[in-house]
Amino acid sequence: MNSVNSSRSSLQIYHDAVAEQPRSSEGSEKSSVHNERSQTSLPGESGGIHHVARASYHTANEAALHHKLAVLFGRHIDGENAADFHRLIEDRTRQLHTMNETPESVEAVLAKGSRLDSVAQVARGAVRAIPFAVASVAFDTFPQLSAFAEGAAQLGLHAGLQSGIADTFGCALLDKATANTQWLTAEPSQLEPVMHQVSEQKKPSTGRLAGENAAAIQSYSARNLLRLGTSAAVTAKFGPATAAKVDTWLTAGGGVVAGGLMSGATHAVDSKQGRVGAEYLLGRTDWKEQYTALKNINAFTAPLAGAAKRLAKLPLDVATDGLRAGREVLSAAGMSKNGLLAGGFAATLSARSAVSQAMKSKGFNAASQAAMSHLTNFALSAPVFASVPAAEILAPEISDKLTQKLQENIPKAVQWGADQLQARLSSHGPGRPLSNS
């Protein structure tokens, strides 16, 4: 029911916008007259002229295709760009008809692209969560990584710092392997002018993007809730030592799942906000090649083959991108993120230690202590997680603005100092020391 209402709404937006455009001639005005009955002919019908908005087609299939595309592009159409979108829709309609496409076949191809994009985005997030997960397991497994830490605060600080560095460095190495995974999206330079303009308008502000990612990363908080219940149950059944081992691997495995869920959530938001979607494929300058490739690929074997190729190239990526990955660690985004993780983990682990000690002194059993420790972790780590993507997104912008200010003000300050010195020298005359003034 909702999809039907949405389709009607998109069509109405399009038809209303096109109706506001001036007509070039009396004949054009007559040919553009249409009503619902003239727009709902079945694709298989032929004969007569089918009018849709200001376009005229010789087949009902073309009219139906036009309707289909008007729905896809409808959410981006307004009074200013209606004429450009009308030309784009009419062009795609005629070409798709020439390609023997129907609304049903177009829908099937685009639905395939949507499914592939969703799966690829979740997989991408899961893969990029691996470096952080590996660092977490290593910190718990190898005592050498924490031997120099004294007390809970230092232990948390080193855990956060090491995990953050591993995440920043590892994700930079994975950039190429996890790039270009989407069918229903495009770079602005790959789009027709009217869709290029739309893509620029749909870009979220850095503040909004930070907020969306701060919400999506709470998938890690959901993982921590799972750790809470599991740790308490395993501690009660098998003891604290076994529970600690289980928690280490649950942290890592759950982190990979959480990374996938986070990426899937951000993709869903992008789709809802009109930043990605079928219109971005059909709005490309090379749309026909992309559409044909999407139509012909096998939805099951192609992703596996693509993943195998990316994995085979990963050693080369690691060898060639190591220096760049190192620079990412020292970038404004990297240092901000790692600093927040170090400080946040230090505070969280200190609080967990204090809670556990207090409960132990009151005679609570190990399972209860584990449950309250993880509850504390859940409550305190949620804002830490939320701050991480915000820092990564906002830090470069803040750094750039600060750098610009320094570049503008330092020369002025130097010039002012030079002018002051020159004025003092001139006021004393040649050969007279400043101290005699």
**Mean pLDDT across all residues, rounded?**
86
Helix-strand makeup class: mainly alpha
Distance between the terminal alpha carbons, to the nearest Å? 89 Å
- DSSP strand (E) fraction? under 5%
Describe what this molecule looks like in 3D.
The protein is mainly alpha-helical and 437 residues long. Helices cover 75% and strands 3% of the residues. The chain contains 16 helices and two strands. The protein has helices at 2-19, 26-31, 60-73, 82-98, 103-128, 130-141, 151-173, 193-202, 206-216, 219-238, 240-272, 278-282, 287-296, 301-329, 332-361, 366-428; strands at 46-52, 55-59. It has a two-stranded antiparallel sheet with strand order 1-2. The radius of gyration is 30 Å and the shape is globular. The model is unreliable at 22-46 (pLDDT under 50).
